[in-house]
Amino acid sequence: xxxxxxxxxxxxxxxxxxxxxxxxxxxxxxxxxxxxxxxxxxxxxxxxxxxxxxxxxxxxxxxxxxxxxxxxxxxxxxxxxxxxxxxxxxxxxxxxxxxxxxxxxxxxxxxxxxxxxx
Length: 118
Fold this sequence. Notes:
- The protein is α+β, with helices and mostly antiparallel strands and 118 residues long.
- It has 2 helices and 5 strands; from the N terminus they run αββαβββ.
């Protein structure tokens, strides 16, 4: 009686270990690609006003479209974690023309603020 319970338990544990894996197996682990590119994205928040943030996407020249989406994704993720909502306002929208995007030393730098509960 003990042997079938042990076998079923091992099968259940083995099956559950696969649940946390994402299907995006690539050389970068489970990182998200944008327009076929992988970007290093950093978000800095203001200590005094944690709703305010600055997103920096390195090597934006590889794909401006991808860099825009990487910045938007990181900002949305931050606002959802902080306030439970993805509502935010940008100082300069990622949707502006390419020539108007704030690219500094090859990095796309966008700032904004989460529109959460206040």
